[in-house]
Amino acid sequence: MSRTLLALLIGLLLLAGGCATEPWVAPFEREYLADPVMNFSRDPYSDAYIMHVYETREGAQGAGAGSGGGCGCN
To answer: Which terminus of the chain, N or C, has fewer Cβ atoms within 10 Å?
Structure first.
């Protein structure tokens, strides 16, 4: 019983250590995370177009947060 309690206590301490108040990334290092190289997309222009078409269709249906409607040729 004591080994189980000790293992549980160590596990809780390790989990609580992950809740630190300091940010993992310093403010001056955040510019590197905003670099376009960090995007998951291989083709951001194609993704922007697909998102535009999606928003236009959802706006035409009235079910999404996008506004407008029509053919999406703007």
So the answer is: N
